[in-house]
Amino acid sequence: MLTSFLKRRLGRFAANDRGYISTEAVIVLPVMLWLFGAGWVYFDAFHQQSVNQKANYVIGDMISRETDGVSSTYIDNAFNLLTTLTKSDSAITDMRTAVVEYSSRRDRWSVVWSEQRGDAMSGVASALTDADLVSFGDRLPPAMDNQQLVLVETWEDWEPAFDIGIGAFQIRTYSFTAPRYAPQIPFAGNDTGGGGSSSSDDDDTGNGNGWGNPWYGNWPGRGNGWGRS
């Protein structure tokens, strides 16, 4: 008896489509707004990560195409390009560029030169050093003797627009590119003093770009990138 009564009541309740739109809106609207905000935050995080990585590729490809070397002013403008492409501010964005060279005799990579730009490099060295390259072992490809690579790293402090349980974090990107038109890419020096820099004192490091670059030239005893000294 009681069972049939409950079934009838539940059946009528399920078939009843009457309601109050204002009451339903009060219940559903907050959930819809939260879902919209969560979707936007997740989209923005993935979008900004993608934009940073693409900007990293642009800078690495740009440096790899140089035949006359780069200067501090060049790196300053590359950093300005990074902040423009990512639509970020220099206070929350950092960039570190470096050219590294492989020595088959020593079976290791060494830093030819490295430059850093930005203000938020928390816990990151101002410029890449030979000691830092130890942790890059599984991120660098097999290489020939005296082969150089352009390394580009970027960092951006990202904060969500809404609090949905995802806290602020740092977007990091990394890429390496082989020089395209010259075997080596020299650095002209701190002509403007724009940021931190370092260079290796390794005797195996060649300073010429292989084409008798006037900034460095093919000094005696220095490799020119083609396996000749």
UniProtKB/TrEMBL annotation:
* Compositionally biased region (Gly residues): 220-229
Task: Report the transmembrane regions from the record.
Answer: 21-43
Which residue stretches belong to region Disordered? Answer: 185-229
For this UniProt record, give its keywords in alphabetical order, as a comma-separated list: Membrane, Transmembrane, Transmembrane helix
User: Domain of life, per the record?
Assistant: Bacteria
Q: What is the name of this protein? A: Pilus assembly protein
**According to the entry, what is the taxonomic lineage of the organism?**
Bacteria, Pseudomonadati, Pseudomonadota, Alphaproteobacteria, Rhodobacterales
